[in-house]
Amino acid sequence: MSRRHMETAVRDLERVLGRVKAKQLKAVENAILESDRVFVTGLGRTGLMARGFAMRLMHLGRLVYHVGDVITPSIQPHDLLIICSRTGRSKVLGHYVRIARKAKARVVVVTAREDSPAAQKADVVLAIDDTLRKRSGANNRPPPPLGSLFEQALLIVLDQVVIDLMQALDLTEADMELIHTGFE
Questions:
Q1: Rounded-to-integer distance, Cα 110 and Cα 144, Å
Q2: Would residue 184 show up in a list of annotated catalytic residues for this protein?
Q3: How far apart are CA 141 and CA 138, in angstroms?
Q4: For the segment 101-123, what is each residue's pLDDT rounded down to a tens digit?
Q5: Residue 39: strand, helix, or coil
Q6: Overall pTM > 0.90
Q7: DSSP β-bridge partners for residue 65
Q8: Looking at 7, 114, 151, 173, which residue is catalytic?
Q9: d(CA 11, CA 8)
């Protein structure tokens, strides 16, 4: 890959990140702060980004679980389910929303598709619109495959949520290091 193509990739990411709405970010942060426990999930590579976010929430001192792990308890009222899904169409994730709703827990959906089935059932939606216009000319680089742009933006957006929560909770990186695993 040429340097020019990497620079194009960074510009693509900047365009996607530039469309993220501060009001939606704040709503996600408030939902996390108001919850007793946080349950995080996603599938595939998006799920890996979600798992990394769960780890950071743990570093903030939040009681957090990754849905599907054998130590994950049942969701309850005053809990929060955060689903990360580019398309918001997964039947598995839809099933998780129904479980959370039955338990009277709140639901956040982070997605590229605000009109998706999962987003329509959420209390809070955080949109990361990864659509790009077609390129032309010398820089006609194809877009990243299979949702990669969403996943890259998701990681950065969720890191920003963590930074904002650090400020809201008056925590420093040193505070988070005290909670970081000692098993490494």
A1: 20
A2: no
A3: 8
A4: 999 999 999 999 999 999 999 99
A5: strand
A6: yes
A7: 39
A8: 151
A9: 5
